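Translate sequence into structure tokens.
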Amino acid sequence: MWSCYDNINDNLPQMNNSCEAWHRSLSELIGGNHPTKWKFITVLQREQGLNEARIEQYLAGMQRAEYKKIVEAYKDIDLMDYLRGLSHKVSF
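Result follows.
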């Protein structure tokens, strides 16, 4: 079963297809199907700035607290209780 548990613990991306996620976020920033070249350049510059800020945060040791707290709470849950809870979410 695929899970993001290990990725979050190792500070890796949560999504299994980060290119698709990047494309979706870029499309939202552009806000249309056929942007002008100036709009596209502006969006790329903004995206570059956001990524540079994320890199600096990562190098400084900053972690995504909301996901880290959730994953750390998994350690306190009994395996059988966890699996029982998952079974209630599965439907066919």
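Note: The mean pLDDT is 79.
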